[in-house]
Amino acid sequence: MIGIFASLVDGVLIGSVYGLAAMGLTLIWGVMDVVNLTHGSVIVAGMFALYLLTSAFGISPYLALLPIFIAGFLFGIALYWIAVHRMIGRPPLMILLSTFSVNLVLVGIGTALWGTVLFNVPVTLPGLNVERYTFPGTHILAAVLTAVMAICLYLFLYRTRLGKALRAVASNREAAELSGIPTTRMLSVSFGLGVALAGVSGMLIATLFPFTVLAGDAYQLKSFVVVVLGGLGNPAGALVGGIALGLIEGLAAPFMPVSWTLIIEFALFVVVLIMFPRGIFAFRRS
Amino acid sequence: MKGIFAFTAAAFLMAAPALADDDTLTIGMTLSQTGSLNVDSVSQQRGADLWRDDVNAAGGIKAGDKHYKVRFVTYDDQSQGGRVQQLYTRLIVQDKAQFLFGPYSSGLVATAAVISEQYGKLMLVTGGAEVKTYELGNKYLVEVISAANRYFVGAVDALATKNPHARVAYVYSDDPFSKDVIDQIRDRAKKAGLEIVLDESYAPSTTDFSPLINKIIASKADSLLGGGHYPDGATMARQLYDQKADLKWVTLMVAPGNPEFARLGPAALGITVPSQWEIQTSFKQDFGPSAAEFSKKFQDTFKIAADYHSASGYAGGLILQHAIEQAGSIDPDKVLAVLNAMDVTTFFGHFKIATDPEHHGLQVAHDMVVAQWQMLKNGEMGREVIWPLAVQTAALKYPMH
């Protein structure tokens, strides 16, 4: 019984980080109707940013969160103007191809620079022991930081003028423009924000697991599942969806071979797409 | 118009494969410059490259009255079987490769073998251990490394020596090679008296092993045998440490055999790995460099330590070279006849293949060792050979922490 409890707690902890990654993806979709296929490589960029910052300056990994967020934001804005802006309003396939191409370029640059060798950011934090089970401190802190990030995002979207402008653009771009909101600038800000969230999620994942240049694909895939569970364009739903995904992984493991987990996840993915196209947790569009 | 014609002609000339002259031996292969197999594949290729450079520096391969310089034609297979199929066809048909070296990993080798057999090209395999590939009646496939059925033999024997009643969890990647390694060891573990308390495979793309580690803890296992390839094995090792799984013995295939495994820091300590070759192993070679000579040259050339993938890459070249020299010809059938009868030892170990039609090409003589990550006398982390006892370079640390 304690084993099931441990798996559930682990699922919530790691699922919240999946949720943070998916929040970046869904925010971009919600505001811009753009599926960002650079998501995985941006997560990896966050991982490498953490590695480089900690190995170059010897700082605590968690002090790197703010610089990585800011760098991610700026990188996202640059990415918007390079690869996305001219595709807005064109067929969705054009944006898919554009962001996919940038993804390939980023992965290619990463492979050329670092190969696919393993990188590891050693982080030691006291964990929580329950009988024979240990909940690593890194997992607990990652979940706490994710919650803080989610609250900050909520406050930004609902309590600031810029956030309200973003939501207005998400709700009705033409009406927002008629109201004097600089929509193009808002689109670039939302893309920057989405990329920054993905980068920070990568940074947090790098405190938990070793990683390679190619690690992004798996997390991008998870993000898509989470976004579908939580509802397209719904950041709060993404967080709940992430936790739900973690719970599924945790809950399934004690009762069946873990290799079945992927099958369950993607079966659920298809079922939700068919039965609840706005997502199980799509309370409302943010 | 004339300009266009000249440009087109030039383009055709540039696109045509570089034709080797009569004194050049063309060997074709793919390597995974990109994709998930990049680390081990590049390591294997470096070994082969070093062999080629050594051979050419020494005047080439002597076959009868002629000396052949070795030329490699390589392509990036992107770690994908589909690419392997296309590229090995291209190597044979367009690049006119006379001999082939296999790609890295069992899955890619199985795919490449279909092509090499179809065209009757001799292919030496230095990185594909799945036994099944050698049970399909292939005639032109030659395995240089130990097959999957040898991988965990030493680990099981060593564990049984330390704890005859160990409670073992098998946790392994759901890919053909890893499953084969575990399948081949079940009977031996049972006969040794080990109790199997968990038997689970995981998807090769697994990024979080927490649920599996909780299952290992719930099973009350004290030993773990498993792993798969590089990223998953390394992640599992780190999480076993972070989650204090309290295991006395952990053997993971492949990942801990790479020098980069040291990046895990204390999470790497105590982990054991079945290894095709270690720097410390010393076989009395019949020809070619000694292990120490190879290691030094590799270190000097690439500024990194050799691992078993690079050693197997070099050994594959050595074996082919010896076979050609013995045959006195580059005729594939004559070379194959020599390889079938060959029973030799290189710095990499013993070489002899099965010649019965049901297992042709399967390596039957090469022995593996078990290495363990330990703190070395110089204060750094490194691998020590702990099994078999005859070639042990340090005492086995049990329990591992």
Provide structural commentary.
The complex is a heterodimer of chains A (286) and B (401). In chain A, 72% of the residues lie in helices and 2% in strands. Chain A is globular. Chain A is mainly α. Chain A has one domain. Chain B folds into 2 domains: 214 residues, Response regulator (Rossmann fold); 149 residues, 3-Layer(aba) Sandwich (Rossmann fold). In chain B, helix 3 packs parallel to helix 4. The N and C termini of chain B lie far apart (77 Å). By secondary structure, chain B is of the alpha/beta class. In chain B, strands 2-3-1-4-5-6 form a 6-stranded mixed sheet, sandwiched between helices. Chain B has a 4-stranded parallel sheet with strand order 8-7-9-10, sandwiched between helices. The chains are: A mainly alpha (286), B alpha/beta (401). At the A-B interface, helix 1, helix 9, helix 10 and helix 11 of A face helix 2, strand 8, helix 8 and helix 9 of B.
Defining traits:
heterodimer, A: 286 residues, mainly alpha, two-stranded antiparallel ribbon, 11 helices, 2 strands, B: 401 residues, alpha/beta, Rossmann fold, 2 domains, 6-stranded mixed β-sheet, 4-stranded parallel β-sheet, 12 helices, 37% helix, disordered N terminus
Task: Describe how the helices and strands are arranged.
The complex is a heterodimer of chains A (286) and B (401).
Chain A: H1 2-32, H2 39-57, H3 65-84, H4 92-114, E1 128-130, E2 133-135, H5 137-159, H6 161-171, H7 173-178, H8 183-206, H9 216-230, H10 235-252, H11 259-275
Antiparallel strand pairs in A: 1-2
Helix pairs in contact in A: 1-5, 1-8, 1-9, 1-10, 2-4, 2-8, 2-9, 3-8, 5-6, 6-8, 9-10, 10-11
Chain B: H1 2-15, E1 24-31, H2 38-57, E2 61-63, E3 66-76, H3 81-93, E4 99-101, H4 106-118, E5 123-125, E6 141-143, H5 153-162, E7 167-173, H6 176-183, H7 186-191, E8 195-202, H8 210-218, E9 223-227, H9 230-242, E10 249-253, E11 272-275, H10 291-302, H11 308-327, H12 332-341, E12 344-346, E13 349-351, E14 369-375, E15 381-387
Parallel strand pairs in B: 1-3, 1-4, 4-5, 5-6, 7-8, 7-9, 9-10
Antiparallel strand pairs in B: 2-3, 11-14, 12-13, 14-15
